[in-house]
Predict the 3D structure of the following.
Amino acid sequence: MHSDGFTDNELAQYRREGWVLARGILGPRSIEACKQALSDLATGRIASGQTSLMYEYGQDPSKLTPEQREFHIRKYMDFVEDAPALKMAAMNRRLHTRLDQLLGHGRVLFQEMALVKPPRIGSEKPWHQDASYFRVTDPGLIVGVWIALDSASKRNGCMELVPGSHLGGGVPHEHEDDFNRCCIVESYVDRGRRIAVEMEPGDALIFHSLLHHFTEPNTSNLRRRAVQFHYHQIGAIWGNVEQHTRHYHFEDGAYAGCTVAHSGANVYRGALPRPVLPLEPYD
Ligand SMILES: O=C(O)CCC(=O)C(=O)O
């Protein structure tokens, strides 16, 4: 069930804890349309114009049939122009009314992903802060929205987070040239205070870009599809590595974010900003 907006207590929760749930942001017809679009992009029934697909570790897509592909994909990116149902989810008026309450008017969508953690082989996403991936000078202007398309629970790798961790600012991250595995340096994660956020299809988790969060591998037989959108308020300033280093550095001052490859490969893609023009959900 969805109501029209957040209560004062929910607004306070976002500020103090860095996350809040908006239940029923997508109704059953909208959820079905999003799942169908992901399936169609995987099999090629929808042309993947701008969409990119990333497979689970060790999977070779050339050895998979179109039908097998969707059970081996880890992540989809850049799909809103290819799939109207997924664009509707990103621009959903019900969601943006809530984000207006939290952050004020005026924002752009700058990144979209679907994270589909396939049954039995879905890998973990290690502890991280999303702001470690974005060279924005004020991380408070960025918000992440993770919308469940299947029930998400401890069994199939729901979101887990440390409430209030966004208040500690940026903490050092490290990686071995694999950005998907870029993670907070272990001693900075307060795992003992983590909570698992179990969600029903259509529920949205809205979270601050400095919040510490992670997901377990999916060893169950259950699917766990989700879409994740990142928005920033208009006026946010995209900076360079030096500016990002102010938020993300080791004790010796060296850069400790997730936007620079050790190999020197230029992989940082920055933002793909598109204005938010709210659309009516299908139901
Ligand atoms: O959906 C997941 O498993 C992890 C999502 C996430 O935290 C991310 O991609 O930043």
Observations:
- The chain has one domain: 8-275.
- Residues 115, 117, 125, 130, 213, 215, 226, 228 surround 2-oxoglutaric acid (CB under 6 Å).
- Helices lie at 8-17, 28-43, 66-69, 84-91, 93-103, 241-247.
